[in-house]
C-alpha cells in the first residue's frame, strides 16, 4: 500500500510519525517519531521536524528549517529557510535536566528566512517576522516584527500587505478596524 504523502527517497521519515495526505517531504528532510504533520504541507530540503512536534495543514517549511520538540504550528503557516526554533531556555550539553518549553505559531503566521524563535513564545495569527529577526517575546496577531530582538514595525493584513506602520499604530486604539488598501479586507488591530 502506498503512503498518502510523498517522501523523497533521501528523506528520513519515522514510521511512528503521522503525515497527512498530499504532504510533500523533500531531499534529506527528517521527520522524527511522534511528529504529526497535517495535509498538503511542504517540507523543503534538509528540513528537520523533531519528535512530537505538531504541524497543522497547509504549512510550508522551507529548506534547512529546524523545528524542535515542544513546537506547535497551526494551519497555513510559512516558515522560511534556515529558521530555527529553540526548546530549552538553559541548554547545556552535559545536562540531563532538559526542560522543554512550548512554543506556539498561530494560523497564517509567516516567519522569514534565518529567524530564530526563542522557546516559550506565541507568534500571533497572520503576523509576520522579517528575515533575520530574533523572536524573544510574544508577537501580537497581524503584527510585523523585525530585528534582534524583534520589535514591532507595524501591522499586516491577512494578505501580507502592511496596513499600519509603527507611527500609525500608536495613533489607533486596540480593537480598531483597518481596511487593507491592497485586498480590501478589514483587520481588527
Largest sheet: 10 strands, mixed
Percent of sequence in beta strands: 25-35%
**Number of β-strand runs:** 25
Share of helix, binned = under 10%
Low-pLDDT runs of 5+ residues are none
Approximate shape:
globular
By secondary-structure content and strand pairing, the structural class works out as mainly beta
Count of helices? 1
Question: Would you identify the CATH H-level superfamily?
Answer: Hexapeptide repeat proteins
CATH topology: UDP N-Acetylglucosamine Acyltransferase, domain 1
In N-to-C order, the SSE pattern is EEEEEEEEEEEEEEEEEEEEEEEHEE
Across the major sheet, the strand order is: 1-4-7-10-13-16-19-21-22-23
Mean pLDDT: 96
Using only C-alpha atoms, the radius of gyration works out to 17 Å
Q: Which CATH architecture?
A: 3 Solenoid
Number of domains: 1
Q: Gap between N and C termini, in Å? A: 48 Å
Give the C-level CATH assignment.
Mainly Beta
